[in-house]
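Researcher: If only I could read backbone structure tokens as easily as an amino acid sequence. Walk me, if you will, through where the backbone shape changes along the chain. I have put the entry right below:
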Amino acid sequence: QSTWGGFVDSHLPSSSSDKKRYSRMVSAKVALVIAKLCPCLFPKRAQYSTLASNTTVEIVNHPINGNFHELTETHTIDSPDEPESHIEDTSVDEEGQGESQESLAWARDVADALKRNSTTKSLDQGKLSSSHLKLLFDRLSIRQTEIICEGLSANTSITTVEFGCNGFKDSGAVAVAEAMKSNGTVTSLSLWGNGVRDKGAAALASALRFNSSIRILLLGNNEIGDKGLSSLAEQALKVNSSLVHLDLSVNGMISDEGAVTLAEALAVNSGLTQLNLSNDSIGNEGATAIAEALTKNSRSALKILDLSFNMIEDPGVKALAKMLRTNTTILELSVNGNIFADEGKYALEQALAHSTVANRKIKIDDES
């Protein structure tokens, strides 16, 4: 135990504030590792080749973000004619994603269904219906993702797209972004847990300059940093008024630098109503910049702001409290899990006590 303690002490930053920041960053990276490992916990799509052709199966999806999504209807899967004992031997690329001729054929099958606006088709860890494409824990290769996105770009019925924990990183996000430039029906796009970094975020931001249908963009549990957030702020939030919900939670590389650029966009944005920046690495400077932007922007529509589990101390929290005294749109503010003390807590309590906004809620700690 003493040896381990010595190792930790020797590897931690020296100052108290740096230690807090280091701890927060480690927590965020642990969450990212768990997200990356998700695909390893579920069977590969190739294992479905053991089913006889036209076999009817019932699919029950796995828990997503604490909620179970069940697909209780039975569907038909067209599988190749193979002996029941055969399980396809797929090669694995450097990112641990299997790719074979059959898996590419599967992706083309999905793309063709998208192009035809097909009604219902069962997938490995998700579904394709007339309005919803959901691919979860599928370990999609880059080529598979590109093929599916080719179909998605031509689809005219899908409104909700969810690529969850597929690990396709920036290249996959770029493929999705290209599809969104020509797709005009998708209103909700979710790319959680895919290892997307700044390049992928920039591609999505560029797509939002052309796309006016997407209202919900969920990018939680990725590896987006300040540059990626700046791209979204500069290219999307400053010019796009269609986006109402942006989730950038559990992106541990997002710090004050990105939050300041985001605040500049929030100072002029009039469309966003919900912003989730929880479990990032935002401190006093970022929180203060956001608070000042929301004070200045009389056209802001933001109702829900989640800054929980960041690195905000008393000065940042006091700036948020000051903002609440004049802002009339914020209905829910979450700052629990930060590192402020009684001074910051008192400022928030006073802001709530003198609020003229009905039903306003502030989450100060996990019990409040």
About this structure: The CA atoms of residues 321 and 350 lie 8 Å apart. The longest helix spans residues 16-37. The radius of gyration is 22 Å.
